[in-house]
Design brief:
The protein has one domain. Helix content is 0%, strand content 41%. It has strands at residues 12-17, 23-28, 37-39, 43-46, 62-67, 70-75, 80-82. A 4-stranded antiparallel β-sheet has the order 4-2-1-7, with no helix packed on it. Strands 3-6-5 form a 3-stranded antiparallel β-sheet, with no helix packed on it. It is globular and about 35 Å long. The termini are far apart. 18% of the residues are buried.
């Protein structure tokens, strides 16, 4: 399978914890579908201190994985809110 393109989309979205509303990422998302995965190379600003864990309430919101050969976070359903 093809890797995601390096440059990625220009539009950024803010990703927040669904539990405590703490900011997690600023992410360059492509398309208009639901947020299922976050490619690490597309994260423009990271507010987390530990990977896949909310800095405020310490809830795990994603899993570290490889998607199409690129490192990514697989988002757990209902754990994050996108604005």
């Amino acid at each position: 399978m093809a890797k995601p393109n390096k440059k990625g989309p220009v539009k950024t979205v803010d990703i927040f914890c669904a539990k405590c509303k703490a900011p997690l990422f600023k992410y360059r998302k492509g398309g208009k579908g639901a947020l299922v995965k976050c490619f690490k190379e597309r994260i423009s600003k990271d507010f987390t201190s530990e990977p896949c864990t909310c800095p405020s309430c310490h809830a795990v919101f994603a899993r570290d994985t490889l998607v199409r050969g690129a490192p990514a976070f697989k988002i757990i359903g209902g754990k994050v809110v996108v604005k």
